């Protein structure tokens, strides 16, 4: 098996090993087939994900038209992934953050980057929160996996604003505590 690439944030914190957490592809264009072709780490077999935390960072939008989400209005990409991986712990997160804000730890160079996490597995969220404790990111537990659809809509809105150049790719929404 090929080793996972870890983001700079995870390299900085050095709290996670490549086998702790797995990330599926970022575009929902390969929605549920990712299990057959492998996830971020080129895992061939979904049994290898049993008991693992799987972070869903997708924004399931129609990338041809940029005008709609491609999951049912009462569902989410994260819930579909959880159905396909019933023995894994799916956490939705990072999809409302642009890469530049994750890298810098700031939105618009001023506001701390906040990562919102949702999952039905509190221990999985706590594992991520702990792993990111020494990073420049603020991490908030935003509830159960039912909230994933709101995160996906939020990510979709932010991406459409950026593509129309209403906001920059180093900007976005911020949360002030």
What is the element layout, followed by pairings?
Elements: H1 8-13, E1 21-22, H2 34-37, E2 53-56, H3 77-84, E3 89-93, H4 99-104, E4 106-107, E5 111-112, E6 114-119, H5 122-131, E7 138-141, H6 148-163
Parallel strand pairs: 1-2, 2-3, 6-7
Antiparallel strand pairs: 3-6, 4-5
InterPro entries: NAD(P)-bd_dom_sf, STEAP_metalloreductase
Protein name: Pyrroline-5-carboxylate reductase catalytic N-terminal domain-containing protein
Organism: Trichococcus palustris
Question: How would you portray this structure in words?
Answer:
- This is Pyrroline-5-carboxylate reductase catalytic N-terminal domain-containing protein.
- InterPro entries: NAD(P)-bd_dom_sf, STEAP_metalloreductase.
- The protein is α/β, with parallel strands linked by helices and 177 residues long.
- The chain has one domain: Rossmann fold (3-Layer(aba) Sandwich), CATH 3.40.50.
- It is 28% helix and 14% strand.
- It has helices at 8-13, 34-37, 77-84, 99-104, 122-131, 148-163, and strands at 21-22, 53-56, 89-93, 106-107, 111-112, 114-119, 138-141.
- It has a 5-stranded mixed sheet with strand order 1-2-3-6-7, with helices on both faces. The protein has a two-stranded antiparallel ribbon with strand order 4-5.
- It is globular and about 40 Å long.
- The model is unreliable at 1-19 and 25-44 (pLDDT under 50).
